[in-house]
Amino acid sequence: MNQGMKSSTLLISTYLLQATLAFHQTNQPSLRTTYSNKSMSKLPESANDSSESVLAERLCKYQHRDPIPSSNIFFIELGFGNDSHGQSSTKAAIRACRNSIEFNSIPSIQRLIPNGGYDNLKLDVLLAVPKKYQHDLDFDQVANVFPYGDVRFELQDGGMIAPSGIAIERLGDVGDDMVVVCASVTVGH
Ligand SMILES: *[C@@H]1O[C@H](CO)[C@@H](O)[C@H](O)[C@H]1NC(C)=O
Ligand SMILES: *[C@@H]1O[C@H](CO)[C@@H](O)[C@H](O)[C@H]1NC(C)=O
Ligand SMILES: *[C@@H]1O[C@H](CO)[C@@H](O)[C@H](O)[C@H]1NC(C)=O
């Protein structure tokens, strides 16, 4: 083998190794754990019994229907939001949801939905929130981000806690954690 062939073989092997690793990582079931009616027992270990049941109750309210079937999905949008001071997962989730939808306009939506208009629009919102900050998540406030549509929430462990480097008491900081939330918004009927 000449030098050129060796290095391209090496490149391809490296690529395949990375692809294999990525495949295995994305297939780890633990990363896809979502909290729903069926798995309430898996709610955050960090939460105590009372905060856990409060969170479960808040979530239940937004799981009154099944997820949108894939044949009825128009599109899926992703967003992220943070609260750099104050450690509010609600604020971070609100920003993540706004970020998912804020640059869109779908003027034909009323025509796309069978049997008429905005009332039958459904939104499935998956939030990835750091476990440590899930207890104060207020789904009602997050739902208000969406001007119309029947909102269904699912919660997943995720997002990120990053250091802000400074705790500013005046801004409500109890530490220097920046709370980052990711949102996936599925729009359909
Ligand atoms: C449990 O969680 C609730 C709600 O977040 C909080 O008010 C309460 O102080 C917590 N109790 C303990 C023992 O940590
Ligand atoms: C989820 O729980 C709520 C409240 O208990 C219930 O009304 C609803 O039917 C449940 N949804 C599913 C999909 O099981
Ligand atoms: C990050 O958090 C700060 C407030 O703590 C807020 O002003 C800013 O808009 C947030 N950025 C994003 C992208 O969510």
Automatic annotation (TrEMBL):
Pfam families for this protein: Lin0512_fam
Secretion signal, residue range per the UniProt entry: 1-22
Top-level taxon in the UniProt lineage: Eukaryota
UniProt KW keywords: GTP-binding, Nucleotide-binding, Signal
Keyword GTP-binding attached: yes
InterPro entries documented for this protein: CHP02058, Tubulin/FtsZ-like_C
GO molecular function per UniProt: GTP binding
Protein name stated in the entry: Uncharacterized protein
Species: Cyclotella atomus
